[in-house]
Amino acid sequence: MQELTHYIDGAHVKGTSGRFADVFNPATGEVQTRVPLAGTDEMERAVEVARKAQPGWAATNPQRRARVMMKFVQLLNRDMDKLAEALSREHGKTLPDAAGDVQRGLEVVEFCIGAPHHLKGEFTDSAGPGIDMYSMKQPLGVTAGITPFNFPAMIPMWMFAPAIVCGNAFILKPSERDPSVPLMLAELMEEAGLPKGILQVVNGDKEAVDAILHNEVVQSVGFVGSTPIAEYIYATGCANGKRVQCFGGAKNHMIIMPDADMDQAADALVGAGYGAAGERCMAISVAVPVGDDTADRLIEKLAPRVEALKVGPYTSGNDVDYGPVVTAAAKGNIERLVQSGIDQGAKLVVDGRNFSLQGYEDGFFVGAHLFDNVTTDMEIYRKEIFGPVLSTVRAQTYEEALGMAMDHEYGNGTAIFTRDGDTARDFASRVNVGMVGVNVPIPVPLAYHTFGGWKKSMFGDLNQHGPDSFKFYTRTKTITSRWPSGIKEGGEFSIPVME
């Protein structure tokens, strides 16, 4: 059995804790490799290497740091196919979706090439007699990120690219379910010219996470995952004096107004609800048509589209719509939630429970499900399913539909489909959700804006990527400078004021 490694101080390092996790091929259900789970000692070693390496990197001017990112972009494009195949093999995504995972991370790296501009401070000359004031944006030191299985390329790059270009060292603790691509990214960063010890990958579970949270050298922690773990990491990290940003769960609503183009809305819902087997934090999992006539027309359009979805392994070609979910446990949880919807009275319009793929019976495939007549008290509405399940909740008025999105505990993303600009503007202005789409089902901002939800979808005050990332990974130091033209005798004992 092949064993993966950690990546510490510029080298692949075998695990020493004696603990491992199985990495599955989700399409076959077979264990394809094992990944070491670091103990506290291994994490502390990686942090110490980073601590020693970081000052020299911070002293490198921002333009030279940006050139490493330029070269990294070239290498990502060179190895795109190899990265996508490795990602699909461990996650189960289709190859085009896996390449998109890499591409959306690459776009953040491209934004980071502008670091010399984003790291400029401010200057005020003659703030007082002979006094100048200016600010510096300086790196934090050693930073860390804990990333999820569903985007094993994109989210690590969302974190480590801005952290590193700001002059920090970065410890990446990726998901143990699909760890190969993060290791490949670390190799490419060093091929691009990054000094050893600045980006390190330490695989692990809760023990490794706690070792990050309790290490005094680590100055900041980023996390993406479920809300309960986000709350734990945020509380623990803050209690230990760290800067923390944590992104949790989601239950994204799409409101469909009576005037919407139903074909456009149905196509959008199928792609947003079932792409990547629904394992996206920005997936649309709740459709909210306004009015029974709208709901009937929508279901009529949706049902044949959902029934026609092609499910299969990434090796079956680019016409596969989605692949397996990541683990047998994930599949079991989705099936349990589907059954709860049936038991609680929802109408299962498209039933994917008996889905089976010949030759891949042991894989973690889940058929597509479409519910109608879901109500807001049902478990399938309240909980994040993270699978190919779309719930339709009928609203009688726009205000009722808006209220559903606003009242839900999660506030990651939402969308409205309408031809009416007044309704769209009202929705965008009033809804208490962090990312809003108008006739756009998955409103993930481009790299030069920021990504982040509200309510229980985010803990912290700064979003991911875009301008916020340069704020999160730097500290501001303000200097007041005076070069007196002469020496004044005696001290001043009252607070200086402007005259």
UniProtKB/TrEMBL annotation:
Residues 13-479 form the Aldehyde dehydrogenase domain. Its EC number is 1.2.1.27. InterPro entries: Ald_DH/histidinol_DH (IPR016161), Ald_DH_C (IPR016163), Ald_DH_CS_CYS (IPR016160), Ald_DH_N (IPR016162), Aldehyde_DH_dom (IPR015590), MeMal-semiAld_DH (IPR010061). The keyword Oxidoreductase applies. The keyword Aminoacyl-tRNA synthetase does not apply. GO terms for biological process: L-valine catabolic process; thymine catabolic process. Keywords: NAD, Oxidoreductase. GO terms for molecular function: methylmalonate-semialdehyde dehydrogenase (acylating, NAD) activity. This is methylmalonate-semialdehyde dehydrogenase (CoA acylating).
